[in-house]
Specification:
Layout: E1 3-10, E2 13-19, H1 30-37, E3 47-52, E4 59-65, E5 70-71, H2 75-85, E6 89-93, E7 96-103, E8 106-112, E9 135-136, E10 139-140, E11 143-146, E12 150-155, H3 164-172, E13 182-190, E14 193-200, E15 204-205, H4 210-222, E16 229-234, E17 237-243, E18 249-253, E19 256-263
Parallel strand pairs: 2-3, 4-6, 12-13, 14-16
Antiparallel strand pairs: 1-2, 1-19, 3-4, 4-5, 6-7, 7-8, 8-18, 9-10, 11-12, 13-14, 14-15, 16-17, 17-18
């Protein structure tokens, strides 16, 4: 049995999508996800996406980072899966139920409501998440937001001047963040525009991070730096983030199917039998 996959990306943040909604697949564990994500010996991706049946939504989306860790949410993957589905969908994730629908500008996703309480980020101990009294070298005074997964945001003059290869993993794994953290560095360039780079938990620097764009926009809005609709430009391109009056975050942007293929599960240490998922 060979397993079919779809390779997709959202602004260069790329995914292997496996569809087990109608046909059971062999179990996917951390080791298999890491092997498939390897860009030298596997197919290669930032995240592996597994679609399964759901009793809460139209289907369930599981997300594995390149290091094999399973995470709660991924905005770019949600847009990609929305494109693959081809019509409005309610998508169950570990971070909550998301709504994706085609729009004139790509795929729009209702990402849920942001959380700011220190134990919902979560942090290791109580502190003001709006202005955290912590810092790492030149990165100081961050704000923390959970948008289905945890983010810490630093506002700087030039995100590209920050040594993210060094500071990203240092902050990601700091004991202050018991579940690790996504690290965002952003510059506000206008009331409706921002520039952003993201060190993703378990994936490193990526060309785009949808939840990072959401968290960073919300953090800037909370501090009064931008209006409630803003274009966030990442290395891979722009996303439009809106924080509605009902507190729902809406992210809009493109998604692309790159190619399709298949692989032998035995090549990646996966058993041949299906899971029934």
């Amino acid at each position: 049995m060979r397993i079919e996959f779809t390779k997709m990306h959202g602004l260069g943040n790329d995914f292997i999508v496996l569809d087990a909604r109608e046909r059971a697949l062999p179990p996917i564990d951390s080791a298999a996800a890491t092997a498939l994500a390897d860009r030298h010996t596997g197919i290669g991706c930032d995240q592996l996406i597994l679609l399964e049946p759901s009793t809460e939504g139209d289907f369930r989306m599981r997300i594995f980072n390149a290091d094999g860790s399973e995470v709660e949410a991924c905005g770019n993957a949600t847009r990609a899966v929305g494109l693959l589905h081809g019509r409005p969908a309610r998508i169950e994730t570990l971070g909550g139920l998301l709504h994706a629908s085609p729009s004139d500008n790509g795929i729009s996703v209702e990402m849920g409501k942001p959380r700011f309480d220190w134990d919902r980020i979560p942090l290791a101990y109580a502190m003001d998440t709006h202005s955290m009294p912590v810092g790492w070298d030149e990165l100081t005074d961050p704000i923390a937001v959970n948008v289905g997964n945890p983010h810490v945001i630093f506002f700087v003059a030039d995100p590209y001047a920050v040594d993210m290869d060094r500071l990203g993993p240092l902050i990601e794994t700091d004991p202050l963040f018991p579940e690790r953290i996504n690290v965002n560095v952003a510059a506000v360039t206008a009331r409706d525009a921002m520039t952003l780079r993201v060190w993703e938990r378990g994936a490193g620097l990526t060309r785009a991070c949808g939840t990072g764009a959401c968290a960073t926009a919300i953090g800037a809005m909370k501090r009064g730096l931008v209006d409630r609709r803003v274009t966030v430009t990442l290395p891979g391109g722009p996303l439009v983030i809106e924080w509605r009056e009902d507190s729902e975050i809406v992210m809009t942007g493109p998604a692309t199917e790159s190619f399709r293929g298949s692989f032998d599960p035995a090549d990646y240490g996966m058993p041949a039998g299906g899971t029934g998922a």
